[in-house]
Design goal:
Shape: globular
CATH class of the largest domain: Alpha Beta
CATH superfamily of the largest domain: FAD/NAD(P)-binding domain
Number of strands: 22
Number of domains: 3
Oligomer: single chain
Helix content: 25-40%
Length: 476
């Protein structure tokens, strides 16, 4: 007998599983379709983020940072250690334990909220006057289910170069880069975006000689250029080599060594040899094989599903969220959209201010921002004022041995409304939250300047940057 639900969610990544939980909290009967398998062949919830993305990469980044601290920075604290070694197998085991704990946590939440996990690949087969019908193709059998409302949350996958085969052994994407069983002596990375910089930083800390090749002529063009300039300086001092304006001409693998021929600064046939190559040139939406044609829905020229500001497609009852729709490919953006759609289905009127979604790059130092950059605001003709404050003047940062970087705050000249906050520093991912809250409430820079911040703390730099907007920083 065909199962019927109020809501079916396709995909159990951050957007999908959060949408399913919120819909269930609102009293809907909910099913969530997921086919993800880990290397052991076990079906898992959590999608790319929890299994081979955000969570495992941050676990490995934390391990690599601890290794670099022990091998290079503990002496600054008077702690003398020698013969520091890294056990890669143990590092991966720790990562896998964290991932398993998180995915098991989602399984618990599904049981708690009485969400049905449909294990297999979901695709549309048609629609009736009141519902949409889907086929769930499992390993040994298939079944049909239907729902009045369907949320498509199938996420994205790594973009590959058309002339380059990714085997996830020598030439890898983000998934393969999280499974190296040894530290490459020489590592090449194609792409200086978020993922490329994080993965390059991860293996550099563990001892790899890392070269990043980027096609764009500028570095971190989406970030504020003051922040990008500071990040470039810090990465260079760490030994991360980044070349901009690169054109990849040819890639060869011979005897477990990869050779990249490329053009750089108008010089052709430059050669880079490496033990491993990470291809990190962005991501593409997972919108193929969904049977969208069966319900009269199509993707656009870039493979995304077009939606309105409420994530509604052109079909009533069909919603799309996360990496398969417009906007940044960020897990927390997908989560917010999942909640938004579940509440719209319930008849509520939520909204998302996409200008208040923070960005984070988990390098060292971390990079985070919310709102617009100075160049964006000037291009709009906006009259602005800005202030900066460095962490080198902050007592807590000095005590932590993390005094590099600064916070930059931008506000409207006339109203003092906060328009953008940009951070390059340790713990930027946590510090940015104060700015997000402020911007959601349309706060002014003076609002933050008037708030008492704990001393000593890194958060004091946020207040000092706000004071600096009007030229009255206290400790500079």
């Amino acid at each position: 007998m065909e199962k019927e639900f109020d809501v079916i969610v396709i995909g159990a990544g951050p957007g999908g599983y959060v949408a399913a939980i919120r819909a269930a909290q609102l009293g809907k009967s909910v099913a969530c379709i997921e086919k993800w398998k880990n290397p052991a062949g076990e079906l898992k919830l959590g999608g790319t983020c929890l299994n081979v993305g955000c969570i495992p990469s941050k676990a490995l980044l934390a391990s690599s940072e601890a290794f670099e601290t022990a091998s290079r920075h503990l002496r600054d604290h008077g702690i003398l250690v020698s013969n520091i070694k890294i056990n890669i197998a143990q590092m991966h085991a720790r990562k896998d334990t964290i991932v398993n704990k998180m995915t098991k946590g989602i399984e618990f939440l599904f049981r708690k909220n009485k969400i049905t996990w449909l294990k297999g690949h979901g695709s549309f087969t048609g629609k009736t006057n009141t519902s949409y019908r889907l086929n769930i193709a499992g390993e040994d059998s298939s079944e049909f289910v239907s729902a009045r409302d369907v949320i498509i949350a199938t996420g994205s996958k790594a973009r590959h170069l058309p002339f380059l085969k990714v085997d996830n052994q020598i030439i890898v994407d983000n998934e393969g880069a999280l499974t190296f069983n040894s530290v490459p002596k020489k590592l090449a990375v194609i792409g200086a975006g978020v993922i490329g910089l994080e993965l390059g930083s991860l293996w550099r800390r563990l001892g790899a000689d890392v070269t990043v090749l980027e096609a764009a002529p500028s570095f971190l063009s989406t970030a504020d250029q003051r922040v990008a300039k500071e990040a470039w300086k810090q990465f260079a001092q760490q030994g991360l080599k980044i070349h901009l304006g690169v054109q990849i001409d040819k890639v060869q693998v011979i005897d477990n060594t990869v050779t990249i021929l490329y053009s750089y600064k108008n010089v052709h046939a430059q050669k880079l040899e490496a033990d491993r190559l990470i291809v990190s040139i962005g991501r593409v939406p997972n919108t193929d094989n969904l049977g969208l044609e069966a319900i009269g829905l199509a993707v656009n020229n870039h493979g995304f599903i077009d939606v309105d500001h409420c994530c509604r497609t052109k079909l009533p009852g069909i919603y799309a969220i996360g990496d398969i729709v417009r906007g940044p490919m960020l897990a927390h953006k997908a989560e917010d959209e999942g909640v938004l759609v579940a509440e719209i289905i319930d008849g509520q009127k939520p909204h998302i201010d996409y200008n208040c979604i923070p960005w984070v790059i988990y390098t060292e130092p971390e990079i985070a921002w919310v709102g617009k950059t100075e160049s964006q605001l000037k291009a709009e003709g906006r009259q602005i004022k800005s202030g900066e404050f460095p962490f080198m003047a902050n007592g807590r940062a000095l005590a932590m041995n993390h005094s590099n970087g600064f916070i930059k705050m931008i506000a409207d000249v006339n109203t003092d409304e906060l328009l953008g906050v940009h951070i390059v520093a340790a713990n930027a991912s946590d510090l940015i939250s104060e700015a997000v809250v402020a911007m959601e409430f349309r706060a002014s820079s003076e609002d933050i300047a008037r708030i008492c911040h704990p001393h000593p703390s890194l958060s004091e730099v946020m207040r000092e940057a706000a004071l600096a907007v009007d030229g009255r920083a206290l400790n500079m």
